[in-house]
Amino acid sequence: MSDAPGRSTNNDIEASLEDLYEHAPCGFFSTTLDGMIVRVNETFVSMSGRSREQLLGAQVLSILTPGGQLFYESRYIPVLHLQGEAQEVALTLQTASGAERPVLVNGVVVDDAQGRPTAIRTAVFPYIGRKEYERELLEARRAAEASESRLQVLHGASERFSAADSEEQLASELAECARGAFTAPDASVYFADESGTLALAAGSSPLAAALLEAEGPIERSISGERVVSVNEADADAEHPASLLESMRSARVETVVVVPIAEPQKRFGALVLCFRRARRFDSHDEDLGMTLARQAAEVLARLRAEGVLERLALYDDVTGLPTRRVVVARANEAIDEAHSDSTPMAIVTVVIDGFKEISNTFGRVAAEDALSEVGTRISEAAPDSEMVGRTNTNEFVVVCPGTDAAGVESFADELLAALDQPLSAGDGSARVTSTIGAALYPGAGARPSAQALFESAGEAVYRARALGTTRAAFTPVD
Amino acid sequence: MNVSGNPNGRTVLFSHGFGCNQDVWRHVTPAFLEEYRVVLFDLTGAGASDLAAYDRAKYDSLDGYADDVIEILKELDAKDAIFVGHSVSSMIGVLAANRDPSRVGTLVLVGPSARYINDGDYVGGFEEADIMALLDDLDANYLGWSSAMAPAIMGNPDRPELGEELTGNFCSTDPEIARHFARVTFLSDNRRDLGEVSVPTLVLQCSEDLIAPATAGCYVHEHIPDSTFVNLSATGHIPNLSNPAELSEAILGFLR
Q1: Is residue B144 over pLDDT 70?
Q2: Is the pLDDT assigned to residue A411 strictly greater than 50?
Q3: What domain count does chain B have?
Q4: Residue A14 has pLDDT above 90, yes or no
Q5: Pairwise CB contact (< 8 Å): B211 & A91
Q6: What CATH number did the domain enclosing A92 receive?
Q7: What is the CA radius of gyration of chain A?
């Protein structure tokens, strides 16, 4: 091994502190507390890509990349000040020609004789291969975590959505999931009703009105079936000025709208508002679209169930409540009569003649006639909400606060109304009506709705047996 | 949260910047203890704060932190408090003062920048690529944010006082939170909030501050109506550590 020029002989080399410092297998530099470089070793000079003269007297920050400066000032220096030392801190040096040199540094604060901090010594190691490798590990870990967290979001969302039993609950679950998944300060959900009108279903949005405008982001997202992002800072003329204005005043920098849709069905939109500029990448868009699609499926189910529920509660032909509803209303009226000691009545109307209309004019005409009868009964009833169709040709009217005389006059009015010809097809037709009633005077034991319905039914039966159009029957306590 | 000083005094709330915790104020607060009720706290996600309370959606902008400041002042039943914010906390203070000037009655902004990234004529000092490079450096320091630094100092025989002050999680935090907070800090733009400030405001500008250069500090001063601007001789971005005496003097001088 030959000696380097100007260096001591083999035997002396390890005795020379100067040489140990200058040619140590790591770079050294010392700075004042406020960061001015006051001493460097030869190893550091060659690492830094600058001359010794350029380094001495310079600020450490001036030999770091801008990113390194930010880290040095906001992290390395506070830790050194507070802790007295810092280890394994990664920084990036910038050479005179602008090349970047990643390094790992350890630093200590050196005290003077009085124990006051006076300088900072930093040891510098190259950190190139390991940095790359560690970055790859970190990126792989992030990618794995991101994909796991997407799965978790979707799995959690699917459970929470399907547990929702109302549109409102579904909307708030969707808003909550999206807020968490996209770290959006504000998430809101808009659903369209049958006529296509959008209304806020959950969450809060600082931009409400502007979002809903024609050509606004919600409309564009729904009609294009795609995610629409609006960045306030670089928005162009395709976005309405009112939207940008309200984004500015609400301090919203980015709005992202995800359509909630199924093929051929537009249910609404998910709206995310960010208070700093945000780019949605394809992963984000996929996640948003998938969340919205899951919600759309549940919404479709909820709405189908709603239709079935409605069918069970309301008669399709006349639109009147079915027996289930009328019984419930009768029970309410009986309770009220019982507690207030006021009379009430159940009036049953049976109509004959639809079969003939159907035979002559067809089924549609018969259904129209049935519907017309329903309308006439509702108009004559003391309370139109209290009329129901309880059987093919049977209607029931619950009459709160009605005594025997009241039933008589209602029956008169009803018979007169139903006696008028009904329009059927191109011509007209008549039906015959039989009325029976059951009265509860409000005194004595509370009768069941079932008992009153049966009594009124029997009254119809007796009236028919007698060949009359009406009969009243008061149940015996 | 730590409350000390004069319980009958006006409340002064110190809010730390990106990178550490309330400890950065340790040499500044003594000068306030006699006259003021001194409140120190860690921003959620930093220091000894409850990391479980770090709701990324809430803290995706500085507004989330501003809400917390108002909450803290309500909890303390403090009105007309002085908010001293370092670095990114300056803008948290601006947002809090705009939200409720009856709570935040005076602002002291230490090394403020309303936007770190250059934009047209505006000089924040950095390009967007620089901020991305910072995020890279954060990643390279992934371990350093969490546990690695604290044990190294334990039982340091040369500086026993440090050992006593250490609680085991000194300046450490979840590196993913640090990364998110870095994005929020360095990618935020709060320039339009400045004009709405209605409370007396002191802007303190360090010499040779690369993170919040004089152009950024002057911009803040020029856009906050009737604010006072003071140049500090302290160099760098952390006068609370590099020259705490000068910083305390400047703040107290403004308050008196």
Answers
A1: no
A2: yes
A3: 1
A4: no
A5: no
A6: 3.30.450.20
A7: 42
